[in-house]
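Changelog note: in this version the structure field was regenerated for every chain. One regenerated record is shown below for reference.
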Amino acid sequence: MDGTVVRHINPQLLNILEKLDDLSFKITAGFSKVARLKRPRPPMAGIVNRDRKPRLLVHRAMHKVRRKSVEQIVEPCPGIFPLLDMLRNKGVILALVSNGLGKGYGHDVLTTFEMEQYFSVKLFREDIIKSKPNPEGLLRAIGKTCVKLEQDDVIWYVGDRHKDVKAALAAQTHLPCKVQPLAYGINAALAILESGVGPDHIIMNYEDFRPKLEELLHRPPLPSKTGTG
């Protein structure tokens, strides 16, 4: 959400939050690795069925000391509303997956800027066990849409950080369809290039991206290879 749906009025605050989130992930991953050595489990075992909730003491403490309202901290990304309107009108199912807390922040942001209506699924840090770059949040969100995915389906995942691209690519191995990571901004763009995904998956602003996406959605489907001709 931060950096893709809304942007921080003070970008330095976002960088600090992202660094703290990255540190939290590394610490958690370290403990998880030790636990796996003691008790091996299949990869991603029970990833969408676990009920245990993370404690998130650092995240909660940060939001308790916050003194400003959300509209003093963030603002909608330029061009986001025409893009969301276009996707909703085209029948595209939208989900939001954030490493930030929902209670006391994320839900307040969506309510303040009247964005909740656009997303059929909204997952925040307290709703998952492992945060991005782990793909758990993406897989949980997809499962909650109750859409049966087929081989020809395509999932677009827009993120502004290196870990977003890694999460999208990791989710690909657990799904029957294609996952297309889209980088919004420099940080994720570097990850796109490093991963060999291609520069056409880089979005620098929504004003330019929307007409390109609208053109893509207007294209007729490719002819079937097994058609009657």
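Spot check on this record: Confidence is low (pLDDT under 50) at residues 222-229. The longest strand covers residues 178-184.
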